[in-house]
Amino acid sequence: MGKTISVHQKASIGDKIFTLVNCGTLVIIFIIVAYPLYFTILASLSDPLETARGSITFFPKGFTLEAYQEVFKEPKVWVGYGNTIFYAVAGTMINLACTIPTAYALSHKRLPMRRLATWFFMFTMYFSGGMIPTYLVIKKLGLLDTRTVLLVCSAVQVYFLITARNYYDTSIPGEIYEAAYMDGASELGTFFKIALPLSKPIVALMVLYYAVMHWNNYINAFMYITSADKYPLQLVLRQILLMSGNMGQIAGNVDDDMMVLFMRKALLVESMKYALIFIASFPVMLAYVFVQKRFMSGLVTGAVKG
Amino acid sequence: MKKIFSLILITTMIAALMSGCKASGNNAAGKSAATAGKTSEAGTSGDDAGSYINIESQWPVVNEPVTLKITLLRSVADSKGEPKDRWFWKWISEKSGIDFEFNLIDQNARDEKVNLMFASDDLTDVMIMLDITNDEMAKYAGQEQMLMPLNDLIDQYAPDIKSWFDEHPEVKAGSTYADGNIYALPMDSSPEYAQYYYTLRCWVNEEWLDALGLEVPQTLDDFYDTMVAFRDNDPNGNNIQDEIPISFWPGDLNRYVYTAMGVMLGGGLDSPNDQSYRPAIWNGEAIIPANHPDLYLNYLTFMNKLYSEKLMDPDTYTLTETQVQAKAAENTVGVHFSAAPHTLLATGYEKWTSLAPLTSQWNDTKMWPVSANIYPGNFAISASCKYPEAAIRLANWLFTPQAAMYCYYGPPKDSEDLLEGYEGWWFEGDQGPKYNLPEPYQTNVDYMINELALFTSTHPGLAAPSWGIQEIMGISPAEGSPGASQHWRNAMNSQNIKDYYSEVFPNVVYDIETNERLMELKVPISDYIKNMEAKFITGSEPLSNFDSFMSQLKSIGIDEMERIYKDAYASYKNAMS
Amino acid sequence: MAINQKIKVRFNSLFGKSSHRYWQLYILMIPAIVYMAVFMYAPMYGVQIAFRDFSAKAGFWNSTWVGLKHFRRFLAYPEFWRIMKNTLSISLLNLIFGFPLPVMLALMLNEVRNRFFKKTVQMVTYLPYFISSVAFAGMITLFCDRNAGLITNILTSFGVERTNLLSVPEYFQPVYVGSYIWQHTGYTSVLYIAALSGVDPNIVDAAIVDGANRWQKVWHVDFQCLKPTIIIQLILSVGRILTLSYDRILLLQNELNMETSDIISTYVYRLGLLGGQFSYTTAIGLFNNIINLALLLIVNSLARKYSESSI
Q1: Cβ separation B119–C56 shorter than 8 A
Q2: By CB atoms within 10 Å of each CB, which of B26, B532, C118, C136 scores lowest?
Q3: How far is it, in rounded angstroms, from Cα A303 to Cα C202?
């Protein structure tokens, strides 16, 4: 439902200026943001030497698709894609199951020991055991080199949790709960039947945050995964970048043609850096388009009127 | 209810903490039990070992089935994934009678994973190609005794290693820790590369020299004059003064300036090793160049002159490799630095000639550091390994010419070591080794790395493939390493560098306290010097402030750091004599 | 008697029937609590090595206790004040300039009627977040180039001396912060856009009926609606002020700009290259976190006092 203004009003001069200033500023922002993005497209399609020379402005120079080809040549990339999609989808579902109910619970003014519970979570943002103990715990649980570890090791991000709790704090008025109690609903019932349907914007936001987190993450895989077939996309891409860049050194005793090939590969790393941005983020962009719809529509409308 | 609940919460937390505690506690307890076991074993191993170990000949290594767990570094170039799928491990498993289990570490995760492995006391029997650094050696081997000392094992079971060490004492010295123990065997590529010198050199644009009728400069002043000529006389003939005489990081020029002044900078393993805060040899003494005002001020003045007179690229500190390549392609660069022109530039390799070491008003002997082709810390045995004799026998073979050849190229055609499904290589004219490349490989290197080699293109022991071929098949690398590109050969042979080899600061191993102190001093001192040197050279800090810079250096402990180097050098000389 | 009654009332309200229901809420939190216990609290024993000299053999519990030795070492580091200052400076600049922008962007986008324009701008501003640090640093380096750099060219047209921006210490922080804001504003604004979707249209209508113009509507309705979210985000941001990660900065750092680009985490990174400095780096991390926590508590109590939102 859109924000339709039910009362008609005459557009005053002040309002017209507002629109002008508003849209004008947004256009400027758009240009400032869009140009460097456009630049990365250009750089990924140009000869790396031209990019380095700084001669690219609005069109690619020395047009070449090599950077993309180099990356897609590797079958690892597709494995990486598949893995990351799995981690993002399954992982986000786990994240939601852990975060949303908890955020709801924490937002309840009447939650017993609310302060303690909140700090139980907040505390971990400031005190953590570090890489080795965490690694040992995961090892003990037998989760090393499994797909599961990537799904659960960041099941709750406290930062997101607090943001979600804040949503419940502000967007759902207490009266709704009172109304439910009057009707004899239990706490769990209230959550599932009343709060959850009203949670679409925050669920959408959490999906966005967590999915992006999974999508961009490579540190966890770096630490805990050794089988190449479980690697997420980001890790694969990093490896490809590193490998191409190092070809000249690995090459030792090779003949002339090979050397030229390797040097070309090493040079391509420059444009590959940019190509990777799109290869890596394209699916997320698509995902966002779908999620965007949820934000556009206002949702709490009408709920309070009961 | 509240009480019960908080009880539950607290119990959960405590239980969680305790389990974590137990985990590390168990590790510690388990470790000491294992070590206790090992020492008693070690006492008897000399007697029992005879039963399972074959000491009559290299193969097989063991008479009974033995399993060794090996940690290997996985190169980024490798796309196949499993060691047991390649010729080398299949072959060596058959020959030696040992079963291998692998723990792979990705090259780009090496630091974290290795530290984790040591810190959680989780070592495998053998560790290969991990490049265990001096710091790690000091802490985990020297102090914590997590690696097994190899001295006795080598004497008893590894005749090839023993003789190699005897013939090359510097290799032995570089692998020996301060307490006299050898904790890990090195990768030694010196047999091959002592003749082919793989190091950063200065390459001068020969076309420009010819255009201006100049010779390759031999002294520091000549160099300066040549650069001025490059800048002013339009050698690239386009009538624009767009020439940049010197391109790339000023650190690359250090070696030339310092050796011209008589200071032997460079060599050694820590990189970058051509910096003013690294140990160097001057008149037979170990020094830190930045700690000697007369020396350092001369250096800074010269470099500053180059920069302020626009003989050096103004963006020297922010240039990327690609930018240098772009400039070279446009023929606006007079001088660049690389191991060989073709390793940096994509085209136009032939027009560069290398610069020999320079002399100056302060020193008239040309000198050049010998590069360290020895990389220690690449074959280590865990202190709790149950079959150290088998491991060392394996390592023993790695120090033979055959290993040098096989580990990289695999066996030649018609060799009896070829296994089912593998074809060997052969020579064709002076091109080779050649392979029949199966799908999907398109280059020799891909094929070798993924199907044949030990795992990557490097390995512990003698990592000199062409030298190995020479020793076994009699083809001399002097005529050009079979397979090496013409470019490499040209580069290696260009200009007389080998004639000027001089002694460098050796790869010294420090004991734990000294090492810790050195680490504490190193970071602030090197940061400060890096920062100030850049500012002096670019002129954002006037040279008149040099004295206050020196006193600041003194106050953060540079004298102490220099003393550490001096002492280490003195002990090294003692041990060598 | 009165006291007894008071105690009874208290007792009832804690353990009386009506409070049973709220314990159900803990059931909702079970998955999160389990996760925290296993992955966060179980490994927490590791923090203690900030006070010990870590030895792999001895393990965490048996390493030698050295008290505050590592903290003292950190404070004695000659460049301690410099890296502290740089970290705070960059973070504060991020906060001052980077915090309001996403809010403004969200408010502005909210007022756009044309859905296509709105969606497009939103999409484009959100994309920079996905640029990896490597590509990002590469881009900034190119843009700061002496001759061909985009930013350099813009600045020289305003009369700034032409030079490579990354070689001047004074420019580093503004360039870095500017690029950071460029990258994060869009993504951060999504939160506020989501929050704005919860604005009750009735209130909006009421405001218009009361004669509010667009500016007033945005200020009195939209902004007020965002206030609780803004406050919480502000508290959380202050609580991370010393947490500035090294990867983007390291890629832009060089010998010339070190005095303004060296931060705590780049120092820790250099230490990491030396290997095995666990106790020391843990101590530094703990030190940072304690300061962060202190700041968080301060801002939080201010928020509790003067507003309705707090942690």
Answers
A1: yes
A2: B26
A3: 12
